């Protein structure tokens, strides 16, 4: 049991430990970070507390530009994700965009039914529920809801990539400098990432979409 009971106190205590340990290992780490950022990857992931991208990829602050939301969705009318994409792609000039879904996703599991989650979540997960309806036959072939939720999470990653392909900054970056899009699933129980095969691609390139 933690000696620091209050959640807010715990994060500040943890921050002090992190800052002290980091400076001991690399005295110039924070001063270098303060000069700017040049991450090569834009990571679009789920807000789930079990899927912290920097930790699970064994990377450091400054290595990944991040946008996270419920069920790692990219909607055509979502200004939040669109602005992150534009900044990361057009200004930071990341080389790759990764959309990461995961197993045991609460959003994907909730989208397996039409239960009332409240106005905001009902609206947010509507596209994922539409994916469920569209792929009803293949989902029903799976043995249980856990397997269906994982497959729906995969379908949702593919759907988000399709939306990203239409973003003007991404289209331009693909054409001008070879930006690539990748879909992945994080298996929480195994602690491992796996690339998804791009649907509808005759080349069957795993996780990679290119215009050719």
TrEMBL record:
Main enzyme class: lyase
Binding site for Zn(2+): 46, 48, 102, 105
Metal-binding found in the keyword field: yes
UniProt cross-references to SMART domains, sorted A to Z: Pro_CA
EC number: 4.2.1.1
Annotated keywords: Lyase, Metal-binding, Zinc
Any single Pfam family the record assigns to this protein: Pro_CA
Cofactor or coenzyme needed: Zn(2+)
Catalytic activity: hydrogencarbonate + H(+) = CO2 + H2O
GO MF: carbonate dehydratase activity; zinc ion binding
A Gene Ontology term for the protein's cellular component: cytoplasm
An example Gene Ontology biological process: carbon utilization
Cofactor binding summary note: Binds 1 zinc ion per subunit.
Record-stated family: Belongs to the beta-class carbonic anhydrase family.
Function: Reversible hydration of carbon dioxide.
PANTHER family linked to this entry: CARBONIC ANHYDRASE
Name by which UniProt lists this protein: Carbonic anhydrase
Lineage summary: Eukaryota, Fungi, Dikarya, Ascomycota, Pezizomycotina
């Amino acid at each position: 049991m933690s000696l620091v009971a209050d959640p807010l106190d715990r994060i500040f205590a943890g921050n002090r430990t992190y800052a002290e340990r980091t400076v001991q290992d690399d005295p110039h780490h924070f001063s270098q970070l303060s000069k700017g950022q040049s991450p090569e990857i834009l990571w679009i992931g789920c807000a789930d507390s079990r899927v912290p991208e920097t930790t699970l990829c064994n990377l450091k602050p400054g290595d990944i530009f991040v946008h996270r939301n419920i069920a790692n969705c990219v909607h055509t009318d979502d200004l939040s994700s669109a602005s992150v994409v534009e900044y990361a792609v057009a200004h930071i000039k990341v080389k790759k965009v990764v959309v990461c879904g995961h197993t045991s996703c609460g959003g994907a599991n909730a989208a397996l039914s039409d239960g009332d989650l409240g106005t905001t979540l009902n609206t947010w997960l509507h596209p994922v529920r539409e994916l469920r309806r569209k792929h009803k036959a293949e989902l029903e072939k799976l043995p249980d809801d856990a397997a269906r939720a994982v497959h729906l999470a995969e379908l949702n990653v593919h759907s988000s990539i399709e939306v990203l392909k239409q973003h003007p900054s991404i289209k331009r970056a693909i054409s001008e400098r070879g930006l690539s899009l990748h879909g992945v699933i994080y298996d929480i129980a195994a602690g491992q990432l796996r690339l998804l095969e791009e649907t509808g691609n005759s080349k069957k390139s795993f996780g990679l979409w290119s215009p050719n």
